[in-house]
Specification:
By secondary structure, the chain is mainly α. It is built from three helices and no strands.
């Protein structure tokens, strides 16, 4: 008996192995079975397969990344081309706008010049018409004045002498 008054504790054993021995024996049997069934090789194959799958995924990811970078480069190129094309369109539009403005200014100047000439022509025609009217009125007034003077100064005897002279002048003019 021990100092505490109890019988010494003995561990149960089977086939001369205690619990720790049995656990060790079970582990050796388990490891032996695993080696006999080629479990490490299967685990290695599974890991190799997993590694190959991961490599395949990495290769696919690298391929996709390369494709994405190529697409990005293509879209950047297209974007630059579109920006250049937009700049070209703006430049052409500005040039066309300048040409349209210049043509409009030229057309406006020509229209103003045509209208100025038309107005001058109308004014000239109105002046000529007014001058013609004044001359016609002056001629009518002069004719009335001449008729009035002739009627005042000439009587029937003077008219007969004037008519006779005119008739004799016509006759002598025929002979020549």
């Amino acid at each position: 008996m021990g100092s505490d008054g109890m019988a010494p504790h003995s561990e149960p054993s089977a086939l001369y192995l205690n619990g720790a021995g049995w656990v060790a024996l079970a582990m050796l049997v388990l490891i032996g079975l695993m080696l006999w069934k080629k479990v490490p090789a299967a685990i290695g194959k599974a890991l190799d397969k997993k590694i190959a799958g991961i490599r395949k995924d990495l290769d696919e990811a690298a391929k996709l990344r390369a494709e994405a970078e190529a697409l990005k480069a293509e879209y950047l190129k297209k974007s630059a081309e579109a920006a250049k094309e937009a700049d070209d369109i703006l430049a052409r539009a500005a040039t066309e706008a300048e040409a349209i403005v210049a043509r409009a200014e030229s057309d406006a100047s020509a229209l103003i010049e045509r209208r100025r000439r038309m107005a001058e022509d109308k004014i000239g025609a109105a002046e000529r018409g007014a001058i013609a009217e004044v001359r016609a009125e002056a001629a009518r007034i002069a004719a009335q004045a001449a008729a009035a003077i002739l009627t005042e100064r000439n009587d029937a005897v003077a008219d007969k002498a004037l008519i006779d002279r005119t008739i004799s002048g016509i006759g002598s003019a025929r002979l020549n």
